[in-house]
Structure formats: C-alpha cells, structure tokens
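Form 7-S
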Amino acid sequence: IKKFYAQNDNKNPIFKVREFNFEGINFSSSSPIVAFGIKDIRLTPDIKLVLGQKIEQVKFEGRILGKIDLPLDRKGVSLWVNKKGAIETKLFFLNYSGLKIRLNGTLSLNENLQPMGKFSAEILDAFTAIDTFREQGKIKSSDMLFIKLALSALSLNSAENILIFSSSFLLLIILPDSDLIIEYPFVRALLGL
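Output:
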C-alpha cells in the first residue's frame, strides 16, 4: 500500500505513511507467521515525540503461538492466553530519527490481559538521539560527553572484557506482570553472574 493516512473524528490527520508492506499471515501452520514493514511515518505536530515527528521505518516478523479463537474480543483473547498463547518476535526493528532499535523475544499476556515477556534489544547509534536531545536543549552540551561515555560503557564486549567506544549496546527487557526490568549484559559480566 502506498501513501495512506489515518484521521481522528474531526477529520484531522493523525499520521501519514508513505509505504506499508504487509508480507502476510501464513495460517497454514499451527503457529501463524506475521510479517509487515512500514516506511516513512509522519506524525502530526500535535503528537509530541521526543525525537521528532518522523519514523523512518518499522519492521516486524514473528509467529503467533497458540490457537486463536474468533471473534478476537476479550473472551477470545482470554481463551488464547489460557492455551499458553504468545507472540514470538523474531524481529522488531525501529528506525526513529536515526536511533535504531532491534528487538526479539516473546510477548504474552497474564490472566488480567496485561503484557509480560522477555526481550533482547540492541540499541544502535544511540549517539544520534543524544545529539538530538542536545539540539533541542534537553541535554546541556557540557553533559553530552559524559552521557556518551556512560553509554559507551554499555557496549563492553563481555566475551573479551574490553570497552569499545560505541553508540550501540545490548539490553535485556523483562516484563513480569506489568513491571519493567531492564538489564545490561555488561554488568552481569563484570559481576560474574
């Protein structure tokens, strides 16, 4: 699909998309595969996001685990959850104003239909976001070098225990029953965990 937009009840556009590629859902297996990509999302100025109004790319590839009963209402979702339903994310990629995030893991819902899961996330080119924050006045120029050095520490290669001055690092994201836990693998390596 090329060039489409969504609007609110007042007929004002919320966002515009240059390209949406729905690669499909394969229901032939017991774990349907879902894949799609979106390019050039432009949000309206009334949606305030910290890195601006343009999202360059979103891509998703994953599988739906567990049988889904239709209709997909609250009861249908509850049945799916009770059958150990989950979404296995092979790849979620976001390119937002130069900050790139690559994520994979599994997302499910608890009995209250609240999200829980475990993900591995790779943050690529975090310095772009830091530079944008400085340009917007959200970070002082005097603090920028310290922040970049601190983020570089997150890129410690745990296999070789060397520090690489890099703007990319790994995170583990855990959602146990509506909580959010973020772990840095380099800390675990330094502590010998």
